[in-house]
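Figure-free illustration: sequence to structure, shown twice.
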Amino acid sequence: MPLPPLNNPNGQKKGPFKFSLWWMYAIVLLFIAGILYFDTNTVTKEVSYSEFERYVEQDHGIKKIVVLTDKREVEGFLTDSLARVIFKGHNIADGQNVVAKVKSNISSADKLSEKIDQWRSTGAFTGTVDYEKSSPYSSFLWSILPFALFIGVWFYMMRKMSGGAGGAGGGGGIFSVGKSKAMLFDKNNAEKVTFRDVAGLSEAKTEIEEIVEFLKNPKRYTNLGGKIPKGALLVGPPGTGKTLLAKAVAGEADVPFFSMSGSDFVEMFVGVGASRVRDLFRQAKEKAPCIVFIDEIDAVGRARGKNANMGGNDERENTLNQLLTEMDGFGSNSGVIILAATNRADILDKALMRAGRFDRQIYVDLPDLPDRVEIFKVHLRKVKTAPGLDIDMLARQTPGFSGADIANVCNEAALIAARHNKESVDKDDFNAAVDRIIGGLEKRSKILTDEEKRSIAVHEAGHATVSWHLRYGNPLVKVTIVPRGKALGAAWYLPEERQIVPSQVLLDDICSLLGGRAAEEIFLGHISTGAANDLERVTKQAYAMVVYYGMSERLPNLSYYDSTGQNSMFTNPYSDERATIIDQEVSRIIAEQYERAKSILREHSEGHNSLAETLISREVIFTDDVERIFGPRQWTSRTDELFGQKDNSPVPPPIDDVEATEVKSSDKEEKQNTEEK
């Protein structure tokens, strides 16, 4: 076995010599530094020939003459005395070793030679004379070097601006402005997202698994003459996992995944958006089978003709037209599938939504209770939780939370536990995290007067009292008068998750919201600005009942809601007389529920006052406190029926600690209860 060479102890074969552009920069810098170094001790002044003669004949200040025969120039080296006069400020003859000289043009070297002989004869010049020729390369170098440097810098800047574009996600310069900015994720990426990382969304995953199966085994469908959908549109509120679901499709199918935002197509330059669309689909065809994912497609797919641009050319419409053309240009089974996500499907162009482009619309809604349990389990994999943590209780306390919100709850709970130097994250940390996300951080440093504190307590106790005695009132979790965020007081309820909302549920909700203002009027004798948010929500809900849901006595079965968005925002779809009736009906609904709330408070005034005093003394009350004062509720929610009743122990739990005893039931019994309900 031959030994490796001594100059390469690892035995590795040296690669070929590669020229680096940084070497050129180093050479240029060294050259400039050398010129500056060698020229710092020489000062030169160009003068006329008559002045040159005067320096020789009258001043006797030339000690050496150099004649450049090929350039018809003469250089005269000055004495120190004359140099100090001509070059003021250069510290001549002060130990600086500065060479001073003057330069002038001559008609011919022969005539200058005769003049030098004359100067010698008169004694005006006694120095030496040299006849030289300038270097043939120096003039060439000085004339070419600036242009070479300029051209080199120009090529370097153009190369940087082009960014080496040529692939997905490449370059953002002037030469690559029409290139696609899509990011490519393929099998070489270390991290892959699968359906195991996507909790809940069972219906959406079932519908999209067919796309994954086609990418894995396309012949199973093409042999029977089937055609896989060209595109699928993921529609849902923000944070529900649309982008995560699209990445999971690519991870399961193990194919290249192009990810791009809809806003990346829109630029200030005309034609750039359409060029990027063409480049994106060209790359997709080269990588087929693959998935192209366009996030927030409403940025480029907005319905055409909605934006008046005074007859000008709309770049967004041109980009959309190119996108429609490219989606139609695919073959029947090209292996390229388009996924898009948006939370504003109502404003998309109808041509984009038709069959043959986006064949399917997959709705990704907010997770319900079982889905939230699964999402918590996924996000708690990396969190060190305390033993016996009730995940079902966490899911019940987060109604209306999206997957992103639940991830934020888990992260916030871990931060709170770490802040208190705990070894694991327990139930108190999760409750504190939910309270902080919903209401904000506690502001115990905010100073309230006794009058303000009592007003807030009466207000919040009014909400709790009215809600407790309404059939469809939301179950109470906690009420506090400790300021949180912008609110001086807050109440946590557990709303029942409904698919269809009866009119009585909306009326009970309005009555509960008006309970705070009604309590101020009855028990304090005056009203305050603390009910501003309640009144805003009440007005919107009453207006929706009349205008959108047709729940008015004088305007029954009428809805002025435009789901297509075609109506102008400057005009109403009803007359002025009808607008007057709408205002009257909204006022009637709010007035009736306000009187209803006041009657409930008068009937249970004793319990309300006891509840308010408890709030003033303890600053926080829980369900058990309200139940001890008013007795158990007559109605139970569907959530309590499925997941168990609240703990009715007489001792109130500490802050942010709501115990729940879970009653397990079989799936069959649960299904029967659901059908009966």
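We now fold a second protein in the same way, so the two outputs can be compared directly.
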Amino acid sequence: MAKTASVPVNDGLNRAKPYQLMLFPLNNGATNVYFVLILSYVAQFGSSVLKLGMFASIMVTVMRIADAVTDPIIGALMDRTSTKIGKFRPFMIIGSAIMALSVIALYCLLPLVPETQMAMRYILFTLVYFIWVIGYTFQTSCTRAGQTVLTNDPSQRPLFTIFNTIGSLAGMGIMQFMIPLIKKNYDKVVDGVVTVSGYADPALYRMITPIGIAISVLLTILAIIGIAEKDRPEYYGIGGSKQEKVKISEYAAIIKANKPMQRLMVAGAGCKLALAIATNTTVLLALYGILMGNYNSLYLPMMVLGYVFAVPFFLLSVRTSQKEGQKASLTRYVSVALICYVGVLVLLILSQYGKADWMLSFPFNGGGSVNLYTILFILFFGVGYGAYYATADMPIPMVADCSDYETYRSGKYIPGIMGTMFSLIDKLVSSLAQTLVAFIFLLFAGLNELPTDATPYSAGIKVAVIVMFCIIPMIAWVATLIAMKGYTLTGAKMKEIQAVNGARKKAIAAGMTLEESMEAYKTMDDVANKPIQ
């Protein structure tokens, strides 16, 4: 006779230990080191150091679009992988090694190719960048896919955003803070004016490359420690080690049927585009160095202020996510960012180059005194930046929700393809951001090369900065809010999904087939009242 037992509503929840919640998100910090080191600077490096002009910016987009083919392949490979060291750790190790070697080749070796061999520079730049993208896909996809084994507790998943941000600060934040400081040592200054930017000196890139690699490798090792205990077959979906492999031909139908994932991809693209544009190195150079006239005085203080304002929003967003679900948190704080950036937009339109009262000003590094314009800008920018920075990576833990929803909907465990689909959006949007920057400066300011803080002010540059710093992010946030309207994975729905998946997993372990368990357990009532047959 088949054995029977009641299935508690909360049975089957997989909770992470505190150290696991803290360490595994550092994987995103490890890849975000390269987000700054490569995606923020590669176009500037290609234009100013390798003399490739706009080719570098265009190639960033072209190569990332080409990577659309490799992303699903890597995701499918991950879903079918099961080694002695797990499913995810091999991809983290290989991805980290590929990125380290390719960035050395790009920043340290490629400038050694003489200008008389420009064709070779073009070819090698394209090849090395493509190899780097493969490594980036390997490691970034693990951040999203690995959450499915780390925890499925709806009260724990929002905490990923906080620890992910800490990891980002340990990776992206350190690089963003450090590189401009190092860059000042390579500026060519005449009578207090920067005549040649340090970003045009290949020695700068040779300096920052080993530092970035060391930080990323350290964060990767810590992330591997964080997921090691959970990277085992018993945590892979509801089938565990009995999980059936999904055919590659099935992936298109799965993604088509997973409506929440489709909407999350739009929202994630919107958040990523806003972050990529608003924090783009060239845009900030133009804003603080050209429009406001003193990059060295303004960039770091404004960056620090942004992080300070972000802290309370991270705490608020996690609390909202735990109480009302991650959808409610994302829409609420993106709305705050959108409203505040209306004020930033107005202030930038009203700014007047050369008039101290209508420009940003801080009393150090050659700046003036703090004025009313600066105070208003800090308030609107600070609250807006804090709100959207707190939500910029929120779609990452939501990918795990979509993956769990797919297991609930179809019984299939495919975190790899879910993670790489999102990784694809991440890379496409990031590369689109750099190409948009180059194109908008060409369109409005007539610049054939990316500007530096040594580029003279023009009305066209002001328009370009307003479009990129305010208008494009605001459009992206509107797209996010529209996409989230039809997103069905609310806090209550995720609790039901985890309870049902937990009951099915226990039923399969007791001898049911996957099909039988899915038929037996569909709702919370089934979980609470039906015995295992």
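Summary for the second example: The longest helix spans residues 415-445.
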